[in-house]
Design goal:
Elements (H helix, E strand, L loop, with lengths): L1 E2 L4 E6 L4 H12 L3 E10 L3 E9 L5 E9 L6 E5 L2 E6 L3 E3 L5 E2 L2 H21 L5
Parallel strand pairs: 2-5
Antiparallel strand pairs: 1-2, 3-4, 3-9, 4-5, 6-7, 7-8
Helix pairs in contact: 1-2
Length: 128
Amino acid sequence: MISTRSRSVHMEFTSGTAPDRLAALLLWSTTLDGVSLAWTHQPRHEVSVAATGRTAAGICFGLAASATVADLDGHPGVDRDKPVVVLAGVFRLAPCVAESVTYEEVARLVHLGRSVLARRSVAAGVAA
């Protein structure tokens, strides 16, 4: 969505594989200034990643992409007696809590998602 009144653009990456959607968000975010990234574990077993930043001309961009927990080889876990989803054996995301995240952490999810796809392709008998 483009808004000339607020000088903003909002985009959601919905095409391609989960790692490709997350990678597209990261690629776009490198073109922006003052970028902040956040991820959230959604109740429908998805991980959403959002990025905000501005162009040199001052246009605000809001970017979003998501992946299912299964696409990222996630599994249920517990942290301090509260339910979480565990990604890459390291990241623990509580449901519906937006957390700041680094570019490198999202890039790690992209790599993990690509590994999951390759493993599933091999298991299905398809060349990766």
